[in-house]
Design a protein that fits this description.
Blueprint: E1 2-6, H1 23-30, E2 39-43, H2 45-53, E3 58-64, E4 80-84, H3 86-93, E5 102-106, H4 113-118, E6 122-127, H5 132-144, E7 149-153, H6 162-167, E8 177-180, H7 183-192, E9 196-200, E10 207-208, H8 209-213, E11 220-225, H9 233-238, E12 241-244, H10 256-273
Parallel strand pairs: 1-4, 3-4, 6-7, 6-11, 7-8, 9-11, 9-12, 10-12
Antiparallel strand pairs: 2-5, 3-5
């Protein structure tokens, strides 16, 4: 490890961290053509430790001047420790004090869709889930219920986006996620290799979730869309079955992460009873 004290907010070593509280700027920097495309940010001891346990490559750590390094599991050789003055911390996070350390990791390669799917039994596809908080909750739910992979379409939020990682409490590292260009094309491939696809929707012409899952014994893929738009008609028409979660009449829909959690619990409960 190499420890440095940073007192200048223009120090090149903290450029990757500056403006963390500016969400629009971070999304621009972290998108595929941005200058941060090869990295991701992890915040807090728990998230950093989980990333290290998942064998992600730690580049550098930003922290307050007196932060105790013993809170981490063993840090890799070559990690750059940047102990920052209050002025520098304010430039990074908008606050002169920083309770939790912030880490910069190399972004890992995204697994191959077909290889991942062929080795899986329960997966989730997302369409247009753009909110990082929802994506982080979805990844946390995926880890909690032990599903094999999350397939994220081109219109959905990056699970390694800073806020998504933070909301997931580091559980984004527990479940593989892959990128897909088209949900419809992915569904067609899933059908070819024996998956049943279940589109989650509040539409009245769909089956109750418990009924939709009856009789399914092979691999299954749930499909979830954004809260506002829901799944597109093309995706709904492509799925094996449309499923809804029964709710009170005065409630239009559930948060997408909540709906995913209920569906994953239901399918796990079903498979355990078989």
């Amino acid at each position: 490890m190499r420890e440095h004290k940073v007192v200048d907010a223009n120090d090149d070593r903290i450029l990757d961290f500056v403006g963390l509280n500016d969400h629009k700027l971070r999304q621009i920097r972290e998108r595929p053509d941005g200058d941060m495309a090869s990295f991701f940010i992890g915040e807090g001891v728990q998230v950093v430790n989980r990333a290290l346990e998942a064998k992600h490559h730690l580049v550098s750590l930003v922290m307050s001047e007196n932060f105790n390094l013993s809170k981490f599991i063993e840090l890799p050789d070559g990690t750059e420790i940047l102990r920052c003055s209050p002025l520098v911390l304010k430039a990074i996070s908008g606050r002169p004090d920083l309770k939790d350390p912030i880490a910069l990791f190399l972004r890992p390669p995204i697994p191959d869709f077909k290889k991942t799917i062929e080795q899986s039994n329960i997966v989730l596809l997302t369409e247009n889930v753009q909110n990082p908080t929802n994506m982080g909750m979805i990844m946390r739910n995926a880890a909690a219920f032990g599903i094999d992979a999350v397939c994220v379409d081109a219109t959905s939020c990056d699970p390694y986006y800073r806020r998504a990682v933070r909301v997931s409490m580091g559980q984004v590292f527990a479940t593989p996620h892959v990128r897909i260009d088209s949900v419809v094309d992915a569904i067609e491939y899933l059908h070819r290799i024996g998956y049943v696809t279940v589109a989650l929707t509040p539409k009245i012409d769909s089956k109750k979730l418990s009924l939709a899952l009856q009789g399914i014994k092979g691999p299954i893929a749930f499909i979830a869309g954004s809260e506002g738009m829901g799944l597109t008609a093309e995706v709904l028409d492509s799925a094996s079955v449309k499923a809804r979660i029964p709710m009170q009449a005065n409630v239009d829909s559930l948060n997408v992460a909540t709906a995913v959690a209920i569906a994953l619990y239901a399918v796990n409960d079903l498979k355990e009873s078989i």
